Amino acid sequence: MDSAQNIRFIRRQEVERRTGKGRSTIYASLQRSNKRFDPSFPRPVRIGPGSVAWVESEIEDWIKLRIAERGAVPV
């Protein structure tokens, strides 16, 4: 994992921009009971009362995984 000085948090709006997912889809991806649950989607980190953020490198890795999976599936 990155050293602490290289870790950067990003807020939900930035996660939306980078992934193309909307707010409700992001939270649905995190709920096991939801049909849109995605166990590979990074979990947020609590950064304060009522505030969460995502680790930037984990979001980047998730995007790279989606790209890699695209090439593995025959069309």
TrEMBL record:
<dbReference type="InterPro" id="IPR052931">
    <property type="entry name" value="Prophage_regulatory_activator"/>
</dbReference>
<dbReference type="InterPro" id="IPR010260">
    <property type="entry name" value="AlpA"/>
</dbReference>
<dbReference type="Pfam" id="PF05930">
    <property type="entry name" value="Phage_AlpA"/>
</dbReference>
<protein>
    <recommendedName>
        <fullName>AlpA family transcriptional regulator</fullName>
    </recommendedName>
</protein>
